[in-house]
User: Fold this.
Amino acid sequence: MKSIRLLASGAAVATALTLSGCAGDLVVSDVGSYHVGGRQVTLTGLPTQEIIFSPGAPPLKVDPNGDFEVEQMYVHYTKLAQPKGKVPLLLWHGGGLAGVTWETKPDGKPGWEMYFLKAGWDTYVSDAVERGRASWARFPQIFTTEPMFRTKKEGWELFRIGTAYATDPKQRVANAGTQFPTEAFDQFIKQGIPRWVSNDGVTQKAYDAYVQKACPCVVVVHSQGGNFGIQAALNNPDKVKALVLVEPSGTPDPTKTDISALKNIPMLWVWGDYINTLPFWTGIFGKQEQFRAEVNKLGGKTTVIKLPDAGIKGNSHMMMMDRNSDQIAGLVQSWLVSQGLTK
Amino acid sequence: MKSIRLLASGAAVATALTLSGCAGDLVVSDVGSYHVGGRQVTLTGLPTQEIIFSPGAPPLKVDPNGDFEVEQMYVHYTKLAQPKGKVPLLLWHGGGLAGVTWETKPDGKPGWEMYFLKAGWDTYVSDAVERGRASWARFPQIFTTEPMFRTKKEGWELFRIGTAYATDPKQRVANAGTQFPTEAFDQFIKQGIPRWVSNDGVTQKAYDAYVQKACPCVVVVHSQGGNFGIQAALNNPDKVKALVLVEPSGTPDPTKTDISALKNIPMLWVWGDYINTLPFWTGIFGKQEQFRAEVNKLGGKTTVIKLPDAGIKGNSHMMMMDRNSDQIAGLVQSWLVSQGLTK
Assistant:
C-alpha cells in the first residue's frame, strides 16, 4: 500500500498540467462517438399491438415482431491534438446513471471530463448497456426483469447527501458540512436512468468489447462501475494500465476468480465522507478493503484515499459533482502522474 | 422560393470555412452538458415489487413509490474559442433515435456535428424527452402508453435504404445507387431508442425550455424533429434565427395555428432520393410543400433542395450518415452563409 502523502500536492500538479491550448482552451483533433458490443435478436410470436398515435385517432395495429440490435453500449470521445496522457482516460458511470455523471456538474460548473481534458487526457465517456444512448430492449422478452426507477429520496439518502429527504427542498436535511451543491439536487436527479438488475452479464460483455476497441487506457469507475472495471481489467490485463475506483460498490469474488492479473495494474480507491453513517456503506467499504488486501497479498500496487483522513471533509458518493470536485480530481491526477502514465 | 443554384458551390464554401484551429484541429473553449425542462411527479399506491438482484438470491422487496424527476431533455455542447457562426447550431434528432444521429457516422467517418464544428459553429446535440440521456419514466403511470421498438426491417425500408430487408445482410436489397453505407446498417440500428407516441406535448415543452436557455440559435431538425422545431420557432420567434428541416415528417396544422411568425425566419427544406417510391414519403413531402407554400404566402423566406434535382442522387432518409453527407452539409452551410448567419 502506498502512502497518501505523495498526493497532498495534487492540486498544484494538476494546475501545472492544465493547459493544452492557449489560455484555457483545448486543442481538439476529434470529437465523436460509437456503439460497441451487442447482438441481433429476433422476436417472434408476440401479439400485434394497438397503438393510438394521435389523441382521438383510431388505434393502429403495430407488429412488434422482428429483428433488433440489443445489448450494445455507447461511447463518446474527445481527442486532443497533443495529449499528455500516454493512453486515453475512460470514465465509467455507476448504477441508475449514465456518462453524464462526468460531464458538466448539475450546478453548471465543469466536471471531471473537462478537468481531465484540461490536464491533457483524451477522454472517453460511455453509457453502459441499458442506459442513455446505449438504448434498452423490450422486457421481459430480452431484458428478463422489470426496470427499476430510483426515487429522489434514495438519491438523497443513499448517496450520502443528507439524512432525510423531503419533497419540499427546504425541508430536506443535508449532511452537516456537505460538499454537494444541494441547490442542484433536483437537477442531478434529472440525470437518473432506469436500470435492470438482470443485465450484469451482457453489460460486462459490452465493456470488454469496449476495452478491446479503445484501450490501452486508464479506466476510472464510479460505484456500480467498480465490478465491471475490475472484471474488465482481469479479462484484458494487457489493456488496462490503471484502475481508479471511486467508491466502487462491488468486485469479482476473489474466492471464485483468479485475480492475480491485478498485481500488475496500479489501482487507486477513493472514498468520501460519512461512510460510517450508513451500514450499507460500511459494508461496501469493508468488502473493498478486504479485496484490496487480497490484491496486495498477490503483490499488487494499490493505493487508497479516504478523503476525510486526508483532511478533505464533506464529500458525498457523487464526489465528482461536489463543490470540491477539482480538488479530488487533482488527487487522482497526481496519482496518475506518480504511476508514470503521463508524458 | 429561392433558387437552389446559389447552393451549387456549397462544398467549396464549406472548405474555405473549415479551419478554426491549426491543420484541422478545433480550438475548443468548453465541452459540457445539461438537462433542461421537466417536472417532479410523485407516485403513490403502487404495490411493492419483488426483485431478484442476483441470480439465485431471494427476492428483495422494493417500494416503487416516491418522487421522481421526469420529462426533462439532455443537451451536449461543444463551444469554440472563436466561432464563425453568429449563433450556435442546435441539432435535433428524429423519431426512435437520439442525438447520436449527428455524431460520428455508423461507418466511423465524421458526421455533421464535426462538419459544422470545423465550419466554425458552436454545436449543441440533444436527446429529446424519453430518449437517450434525457431518460424515460415509468409507464403507464407517467408515460401513458407502451413504448415502441423499431425493427431493423422498418429502419431499412422506411428510411429508404433499400426495398427489402432480410435478417442475413447478404440477402438485403438496397436501393440502386444508395449512398447509405449498407455495410454499417447494423451499426446504425444500434443507435435506435424506444419511443412513445404519447409524449409530443411534454417533448415540445422541453424543447421550448431548451430554446429559451440556449438561443438565439439556428435549429437543424431531422424527421420527427420537424414539427418540434417549427413549433419551437413559433413559440420563440425571436430566438430561432433559421430553421434547417432535413426531411421533416410533420408540421403544426396551419389551419389551426397562427404561423405568421415564420415569415421572418429563413427556412430550408432538404429532401433525399427515392421519395416517389413510397406513398408514406410522397404524402409527407406533399404536406410539407403545402406548408411551405403557406409560409411563402405570408411573405416567408423559404428554400427547398430536392437533392436529385440538384444532381445529387442516392440519398436515404438518414442523409447525414450517407457517404456524401459532407456534400449535403456543404449545401446547408452555403445556405446559412447566404442568410448572413456567419461572421
The first strand of chain A starts at residue 26 and ends at 43. Confidence is low (pLDDT under 50) at residues 1-21 of chain A.
